[in-house]
């Protein structure tokens, strides 16, 4: 078999495996974070989590497919490792950047939600609260 084809096969297997592993890890650990962002609404958190995972798969598998093409043929074992290290390194960087982007956006949403919850007055704006009794009385 041609070394270029072997490089493609190994690249696809490792890239797909890494993408699935990262997506599952983010999904299982992100569910708790999303529940907090969604103010405890577990159904909404689960739905958003699922949509994020589907989007993550689509973007990463699309990138892996587009990045599969290699202009030159691989003629040696060293070439196989060099091509794989370049391709897999770029895939790992893209996975990391997407992950950090998701965490940053969700963190901002979470921070905004917490600020809104903290700004709720203890009494409705139209309600009346009696004055507190003096401490010495």
UniProtKB/TrEMBL annotation:
Q: Which residues cross the membrane?
A: 6-23, 44-68, 88-107
According to the UniProt record, where is the region Disordered? 117-137
Organism, by scientific name, is Streptomyces chilikensis
Q: Which UniProt keywords apply?
A: Membrane, Transmembrane, Transmembrane helix
* This protein's name: Integral membrane protein
Composition skew (Low complexity), residue ranges: 125-137
Question: Would you say which domain of life the source belongs to?
Answer: Bacteria
């Amino acid at each position: 078999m041609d070394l270029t084809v072997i490089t493609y096969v190994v690249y696809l297997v490792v890239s797909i495996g890494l993408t699935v592993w990262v997506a599952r890890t983010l999904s299982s650990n992100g569910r708790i974070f999303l529940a907090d962002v969604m103010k405890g609404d577990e159904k909404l958190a689960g739905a958003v989590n699922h949509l994020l995972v589907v989007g993550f798969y689509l973007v990463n598998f699309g990138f892996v497919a587009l990045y599969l093409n290699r202009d030159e043929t691989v003629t040696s074992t060293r070439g196989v490792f060099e091509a794989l290290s370049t391709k897999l390194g770029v895939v790992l960087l893209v996975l990391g950047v997407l992950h950090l982007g998701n965490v940053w956006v969700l963190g901002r949403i979470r921070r905004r939600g917490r600020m809104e919850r903290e700004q709720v007055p203890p009494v409705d704006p139209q309600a009346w609260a009696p004055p507190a009794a003096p401490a010495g009385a």
